[in-house]
Amino acid sequence: MILDVAIIGAGPAGLTAAIYGKRAGLNLLVIENNPVSGGQVATTYEVDNYPGLPGIGGMELGGHFHEHAVKMGAEFLSGTVKSVDKTEEGFTLCVETEEADVTLQAKAVILATGAEHAKLGIPGEEELAGAGVSYCATCDGAFFNGMEVAVAGGGDVAVEDAIFLARSCSKVYLIHRRDSLRAADRLQKQLFALPNV
After folding, report:
1. 29 with 83: CB under 8 angstroms?
2. For residues 103 and 92, is the Cβ–Cβ distance under 8 A?
3. Which residues sit opposite 106 in a β-bridge?
4. 64 with 58: CB under 8 angstroms?
5. Which residues are catalytic?
6. Mind listing the pLDDT tens digit for each residue in 53-62?
7. Contact by Cβ (8 Å): 159, 143
């Protein structure tokens, strides 16, 4: 049997694609290599900016996404996609699972593989992710109101995050490894004008 769609990734984008695909009556399969659906959001301790569900845990939100896709009839395969090859009929995918390699045929493939945060690789970072260590100032900054915080990096995103956090945090430390920032001049001027950075 040839799938209408193979969706690689079970984060918010992949699960949304599955929901819409099933609503359209497509025969599809979601391939996920993580033991838990939800993508990056599942690693977030608390999500306070998702409309209608303030304060929901990231793992719980990812679970809701997964449950919705299952309710619509989406099927899942746990494994790692090793190759995707174009064929006359569509695509051939080779998926490595715990039991054996699986070969699938699909008319279309949706890549919803998400992204990973740039990490520092320092002691405690993994253990404190979502519980004091954050990778999104606009997502999690409100949890640190009135506190002293640190931002690692010297590019545009790090400087923008430091500026954003300076609005509500008592003090912001910007830690970077070079002798000067790489951020755009206009951002640097905004940053250097802030008394609490």
Report:
1. no
2. yes
3. 3, 91
4. no
5. 136, 139-140
6. 988 988 899 9
7. no
